[in-house]
Amino acid sequence: MVSFSCALLALITGYVLYGSVVEKAFGADSTRTTPAYELTDGVDFVPLSWPKIFLIQFLNIAGLGPIFGAILGALYGPAAFIWIVFGCIFAGSVHDYFSGMMSLRHEGKSIPEVVGIYLGSHVRQFMRVMSIVLLLLVGVVFMVGPASLLSNLGFDGVFADKSFWLAVIIGYYFVATILPVDKLIARIYPLFALALLFMAVGIAVMLVFNDLPVPEVGTASNHPAGLPVWPMLCITIACGAISGFHATQSPLMARCIPNETVGRRVFYGAMVAEGVVTLIWAAAAMAFFPNGIEGLSDVLDKGGPSLVVNEVAIGLMGSFGGMLAILGVIACPITSGDTAFRSLRLIFADMLNIRQIHIFHRLVLAVPVFVAGYLLTLVDFSIIWRYFAFSNQALATVVLWTAAVYMVTQDRNFWIPLAPAVFMTGVCSTYILMAPEGLAVSSSVAWPAGVLVALTAGLLFILKASGKRQQSDEMV
User: Fold this and answer.
1) How much of the chain, in percent, has pLDDT values that exceed 70?
2) Model pTM score
3) Lesser CB count within 10 Å: N end or C end of the chain?
4) Contact assessment for residue 385 and residue 442, using Cβ atoms and an 8 Å cutoff
5) C-alpha distances out from residue 368 to 186, 207, 232, Å
């Protein structure tokens, strides 16, 4: 329990201390007029209070990630604590802060457009394709998953029909995608976010109260399937450490922020909150079952992360916990699915330069997106889905490199986004070399090759950035 407590304290301290460093390095300016006021349209650009934006951002980026990812990552043992803490403070929160604040500085544009400004038109096109594919996958999976869960709750008749629930969810997604952000999302998301936080805090309290044997860092622990910690853990636990999906969501709230100085609370803070939830669920998954991680592995084999959530919640919090578990397992993916489709609408709007004030323009973009999403629900894309985890982290890596370039253009400390950009380049390079769906080379080749790619990229960036600064000084 000492390692878990220290990790929890480290996350909170990281927000207070390193969050301040990141904010100061970026140069948040309270006197700037934000897009929420400058481009107010009553649809997507709507000023909201920071607590409300924080809760919406938290739920947007969370979904099932901090629960399911934590449970799967718990198979690596206490190493998961280390990755969650360091990944969240120095990579994920930095990524989320910069993706949100760069969008804020560029009229609330979606992340592919921001990336294109600093990395060029070719990378912009790449990011557009990657973001669209990623969001479609997220949206479709979060249609089918909750529909399956709802149809298996013991209802009779039409309510036991998966197709019925799929139609209901698609209908809700469509409404949430085209309605003004303050009419639906801003009203219900804070409630679901509070429920998710309450469930996590309840699990943490019962962990301590029952004195469950949470393993300590340094305890020998190997993944049951023999998967290596590097880079697999960094891919398995994405939400809660770093996730490229978040970069597609941050611009939604960048369009609603009333003042730049609340950016740290909204973007950096929501990521740390997700890290806390991830840490709690990772600890619970390691400690709750008999035989520890072996017991966890057995339950995962029987029913996957959903079964783990239900057993842990009911076992620690009783029937009320079970109710919250069901609420979380069903509501969390739904509240990520609808904003995935909303983000798709806005990405296409930015691509095609179509303003979204009139509902007709929103329908023109939303209808084809939902047709594509529905058609994907009819296809078995399990093989394609294997690439989702890698694509997610690759997108995050590109955003971090964009942030590093942005800081060079502003003559500010580029090391803050550069360090995690180099690290994540190593993660993605090693993964694609090693993974079965990649090149499937041995770890003895993949590890040094991945590290070499990352270090080379970092060195080239530093040399180029130093050259630009020298030229700038000479001009002065």
Assistant:
1) 96
2) 0.93
3) C
4) no
5) 25, 47, 36
